[in-house]
Amino acid sequence: MADCLFCRIIRKEIPATVVHETELTLAFRDIHPRAPVHVLVIPKEHIDSLIQLKPAHAGLIADMHQTIQAVARQEKVEATGFRVVVNTGSDSGQEVKHLHYHVLAGRKLVWPPG
Ligand code: AMP
Ligand code: ZN
User: Fold this and answer.
1) Residues annotated catalytic, as ranges
2) Is residue 61 part of a domain?
3) Which structural domain range is residue 58 located in?
4) Radius of gyration for the chain, computed over Cα atoms and rounded to the nearest angstrom
5) Is residue 112 a part of any domain in this protein?
6) Distance, CA 40 to ligand 2 centroid (Å)?
7) Does any domain span residue 113?
8) Residue 65 included in any domain
9) d(CA 96, CA 77)
10) What is the tens place of the pLDDT at every residue in 27-58?
């Protein structure tokens, strides 16, 4: 997707602080962190949102979850815990239309988030 913000980050046209990368997945720091650890995990393939995921994406979904685990270990929050948020569609406030998992950690996270 030519003008998709996260596709541009994948193509390195826009800088990002990458914390982990696999063949299928990229993890980088959110530019406006909502917690001491706020990392976005995205597929390198452009997918608009979770709603577009299909059974053929099973390998990609596994890879994204393994990347989340790697980020939690790297950021040393594996034991203290973390939250994964996937905003999907307008009611959720999804701003960037490229599937992304927010990984939030490093403080007590309020529940419910509102
Ligand atoms: P969402 O509201 O779920 O679509 O989340 C989009 C997230 O992308 C927000 O938390 C933004 O702070 C983040 N974001 C926007 N632009 C950038 C960027 N250039 N680099 C890193 N994160 C970004
Ligand atoms: Zn994209």
Assistant:
1) 100
2) yes
3) 5-105
4) 14
5) no
6) 13
7) no
8) yes
9) 26
10) 999 999 999 999 999 999 999 999 999 999 99
Furthest-apart CA pair in the chain: how many Å? 39
Geometric angle at alpha carbon 103, from 100 and 107, rounded to 5°: 155
Number of domains composing the chain? 1
CATH number for 24: 3.30.428.10
In terms of C-beta density within 10 A (0-12 exposed, 13-18 middle, 19 or more buried), how is residue 41 classed? buried
111 alpha carbon – ligand 2 mean position (Å) = 30
Residue in 11, 88, 87, 102 with CA at minimum distance from that of residue 51: 88
Q: pLDDT for 71-108, tens place per residue?
A: 999 999 999 999 999 999 999 999 999 999 999 999 99
Q: Measured from the CB, is residue 15 less than 6 Å from ligand 1?
A: no
Any atom of ligand 1 within 6 Å of the Cβ of 31? yes
**Mutation probe of ligand 1 site: the residue of 8, 37, 83, 96 with most atoms within 8 A of C-beta:** 96
Kindly state if the Cβ of 95 falls inside 6 Å of ligand 1.
yes
Q: How many CB atoms lie within 10 A of CB 32?
A: 5
Residue 94 has which token pair? Answer: 């999804």
